[in-house]
Amino acid sequence: MAKKKFTPKKLIKKTLKNPDAQNGDVVEGGVEQKPKEGTVVSRSIVTEMEESYLDYAMSVIVSRALPDVRDGLKPVHRRILYSMWDVGLKANAKFSKSAKVVGDVLGRFHPHGDSSVYDSMVRMAQDFSMRYPLVRGQGNFGSIDGDSAAAYRYTEAKLESIAEELLLDIDKNTIEFMPNFDGSVQEPKVLPAKLPNLLLNGTVGIAVGMATNIPPHNLTELCDGITALIDDEETSINDLVKIIKGPDFPTGGIIYNNKDILSAYASGKGPIVVRAKAEIEEMKNGQHCILVSEIPYQVNKSTLLQKIAELVRDKKIEGIKDLRDESSKEGLRIVIELKKDAYPQKVLNRLYQSTQLQETFHLNMLALVDGIQPRVLDLKAILQEYVKHREEVVRRRAEYELAKAKDRAHILEGLKIALVQIDKIIATIKKSKDRDEARKNLISRFRLTEIQTNAILDMRLHQLASLERLKVETELKEKKELIKELEELLKSKKKILKVVRDETLEIKEKYGDERRTTVVAHGVKDFSMEDVIPNEQAIIVLTRDGYIKRLPPDTFKQQHRGGKGVMGLATKEEDVVEDLLVAMTHSDLLFFTTRGRVFKLKVYDVPQTSRTAKGMAIVNFLELGPSEKVSSILSLADLGDYKYLAMVTKSGTIKKVDIQDFESVRRSGLIAIKLRDEDALEWVKPSKGKEEMVLVSSKGQAIRFKETDVRGMGRVASGVRGMRLGRGDSVVSLGIVDSGMVNKGMLELLVVGKNGYGKRTNMKNFKVQHRGGSGIKAGKVTPKTGEIVYAQVSESVDERDLIVISEKGQVIRLAFGDIPVLGRATQGVRIMSFKEGGDSVASVTFI
User: Fold this and answer.
1) Can you give the pTM of this predicted structure?
2) pLDDT tens digits, residue range 457-475?
3) According to a count of CB atoms within 10 Å of the terminal CB, is the N or C end of the chain lower?
């Protein structure tokens, strides 16, 4: 038998003929007749499954899994908060057993399992789950390690004060109520929600065929965004993102890429990269460790540590020696101790790649609009829906208060009439048989309403006093003024929005706080900082123990020679300033290390700090090996007119390498020179190929020879001898000079001793020799002057300033011309006095 087919056209015709007929109903003569009880009606299983599944899906979507855009709550959360409010568990009340709350919610509002209610209440009390917790818990409410809360018979709870703002004015007819599951009591369809809770605390929910994942945000930023939208309806999402900078997770962390944030807010969905806050620090034993103080949102700390341990065990991550969880009440702290030969930044990057130290939050802002329609909303739409809800709440509250005020004013007017004619009122009551007759007589004689008459009959004798009469008149006047204000408010949408705005600012003032999550404008991988960072001069400071920072050039003011200077760098104990360099923020820096390797880094990647800050460990930026230190820094922007880089080791070996060999430097670095045992690369300077070289040693010797004596070599070559050194002597300076300028007497050699003595000597006093010799005296080294720590060839008319930094971080800035010109074999004059005993010059640079 052929199966009967129903086309959509036929189905529509049948429905139009009997629009109220349901599948299974008996239709005769176009009139619907319900099947009699006990009658078996044939029904397609496909139709039954479709309709039943659709009913189930809509029930899950509307009544369980998705939040309402107006108050940001799912039904279970709304019922918990309303139940606690209704039984008086407010912020100023005593704690009550969680079991009592769960029982009340189950018995009156939520016909589901007790675990669904308790788990939801626990989450609202967790400060690592909610940016602004709505429930204050007492007892074990779980931990960031994934520990579950204690059973509800052991814990206690009440509302947080901020949660009361969601329920405020609920008793003033501000929202609609509906019958509960058995019709015994009424429950709210939505809360008045003085807080923009949907974005404030976010939510996660999985419905049927759809899901929501909204991150928490900062209250201060949300309030500012709402007020901006009220002030100007045309405010764009681009404008809002400048105010609401991105999610603000309770666990902190760092989110990346403004483009991703804007895209997610504009479309209502999209990925946002979140990283843990991790820093590389040097320990007391000289080794390094990675300190994690904040982790991405919803990451289980215990699972994270277990994953790192497994990767170390399986040798998928090399270089980790120990892993410790030192978290306490003060905050989260994970210590990842590294091996001696590990590259700290390389290990950290691998951890980001392989563990939940870097997560992607997939934002999906799906919520119920008007309580029934699930929609993916952009940032502006969510704020608009919230403002619309608050506008409705304020309007209904005003209507309620207006009705109450009018009712009270009506009674007060009756009382005023009675007090004016009190003798006649009393006489009328005395002549009446009973209360009913008195009421009728008062209504007919004094033209009062029944409500006014009942109020008069309920008056007490003390209300006849003159002060009480004055109170009635004053209250009536106040009520009339209130009625006038409320009527004007209800007539003007602008005034209603002003009330919404003012109340939003009150919330901001009361509960607003600083962001916890840092927003980084660029992405994790590819970005261009040149678009956001101005190209300006900066001072790069590097210490001997490997701490680096960036300072603006006007940090130090010029002083005269012999001054004491200012405190320029807060170093750790026994650390000294090693190198200073002036460069533009967009320039590339080449970092040459004592092990003969070279790295490249942008100037703006070096963090800018205050004058007295310690700076950040260089291992945060360069993959340095154990006992490897940066010995020389060059700015690539300053090398345009040069052909070679000349390198000198502490033992006097020299070589030249073509600059083009350093145009492309890998993140892991390149070999710049092949070193012999116990030697170290100390000096790197650019040269043009036909100049002269000057080497100065710590014992006061100097040698000047032609650059052509040193041929160009490859990066991996070892070089040749540049200067023969005595026992205990080492090279402290490399200078590249123009022979023509030397012969004209235009160049001078500046030398600075360890104890703050310095002088200038004309370069004509140093004859040209062949490389490899011992040189001639450049300064008289005595216990008074100390060994030479700095030497520099400069023009005689150099108008630049000199910055001298001591080992204890003292800084002086003085003019180059303030230092006198003296002979080769002289001691020099004091150019810097030290504030503390035992201090000495550590570094000198021109600016």
Assistant:
1) 0.66
2) 888 877 777 667 888 889 9
3) N
